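Dear support,

We are seeing what looks like truncated structure output for some complexes. This example has two components. We would appreciate it if you could run it in full and send us the complete token output so we can diff it against ours.
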Amino acid sequence: MPDEHSIVVRELSRKFGDFTAVDRISFTVDRGEVFGFLGANGAGKTTAIRMLNGILRPTSGSATVAGYDIAKEPEKVRLNIGYMSQKFSLYEDMTVEENLSFFGGVYGMSPRDAGEARARLYDRLSLGDIRNRLTASLPVGWKQRASLACAIQHNPQIIFLDEPTGGVDPVNRRAFWDIIYELSEQQVTIFVTTHYMDEAEYCGRISIMHSGKILTIGSPTELKQKYGLPTIEDIFVNLAGGRS
Amino acid sequence: MIRRLFAIIHKEINHILRDPKTLMVLFLMPATMVVLFGFALNMDITHIPVAVIDHDNTPESRAFIRAFTGSKYFTAAYRIDDVSEVENLFKNRSIKAAIVIPNGFGKDFTTRPEVDYQLLVDGSDPTYGQAVTNYASAIATSYSLSNPGAARLVPIEIRDVFLYNPDLKGSNFITPGLVAVILMMACALLTSITIAREKETGTMDVLTVSPVRPIEIMVGKVIPYVGVSLIDAVFIIVFAKLVFNIPLRGDLVLLLGLSVVYVYCALGIGLFISSIAKTQQVAMMAALVATIMPSILLSGFMFPIFSMPAPIRIITYLVPAKYYLEIIRGILLKSSTFGILQNQVLFLAILGTAFIVIASLRFKTRVN
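Here is the complete output from our reference environment:
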């Protein structure tokens, strides 16, 4: 696999009947990069991500994720990515440890490997004290962390974060991003979707999607210079709002 | 594959044990239903209130009436002289039947080969009315046989012997049927909400992005529920034995073994429903309607299938409870063996597999 690119997308399209949800998008994401995938609701983000996760077949075009073709080897793709959504999809009637152990099994980890991975995560995400608590009883910030732990314990090369900080207070949000940066330093690729524009500022590069197309792509600083606007939010409103 | 499956099974067991609602569906609901149905569906009617109108008033007519009112089936609620009063008694539901003895009954009884009396029955509830007629004709026949008058035609005597349920106890027939209805309902209800719940909470999204295959989710969910449902089946049968003293003839291990096939089928229906329903509420309603109604109405539980019109009779072939009723009544009442029941088992296995395959296909296409 090409070492520098984690995700390579070429002319990827998806149609639902006459409707083109994703229209020939192309981009690459480097290994260890924090990539922000922005777009308004209905812009085609979700469809694009589902294709990249290997759960939706593209109509045309191609993409490799973690070195595997999404259409030909979707199982391998899924085995090598982690996924965390805004809903913090934990089983609320189970403890943090039971959730982790379940997802360890789902990713085919041996009980021993999973146990070691858990021990490291407890340490790294300071989850040790709450590991035996039911996740239903946890504050949102902790749920988010436990959710992240479930998404990364099988050491994925890429982590997909779907609006990961919805409903989380600024302190926890900052703490969360510190962990994300740490992962990025360890060459884990981070693919974030969000419509929190301040969150977009945390990303190394961002793309803005509208009506199935990627309108622009670049680092937050580059984009601000290019459009002569002070914030990402202004750029977003200008691009996505102006054309709808 | 094995690790993934094991992880899902383990998780489902956690869900089952930690949700008090599950335990209620499994134990409280069946116990309540057995008691309610068992008592309410008691077909053995006694103490039917009747009005007696004796126009004859001879020793013969009085003895004939005593044959009725002396039995446990009839109670003389009213003795009246005028037939026109009967209608009011029927209307205000004071009586269910009236016995009218015509003038000359006593004389005819000793001299003629045929004697008439009239029985008026409230037909607004046909089942009840039919039972009243049957009891009355049984009493009249037996009375005329034991009191031969002059030159009377003695009808050919039928000595009925009811095999397998000699007392014709309703509960012997009903309770095994209840096991079929309750098992179907509990299994389908529980499994149908498990997937809908994962859709609601969003955990299903994470599972679809994981390497787990749809069939692994299905099988992983079915296995723990098969175990739980079997415990439930034993519970219902033992409970019914304790409350209604139903007979437990036949091979109980065989019954349990064949119950697995039925439960498999019920779980398949549950999974099929949850592959369509998006919320737990919808799943629950659909499961109740799709299982209770056919299991009670079209399975032979209450209404004999052979008396249904042909199109409906064909539909009953798709009702799993029909086959299980034949199995459980066969084993408990007639000591049937596997050889006799193998067709029923085959049908259940085919139905169950069909439901599970359709459910996982639906699950897959939704993902794509």
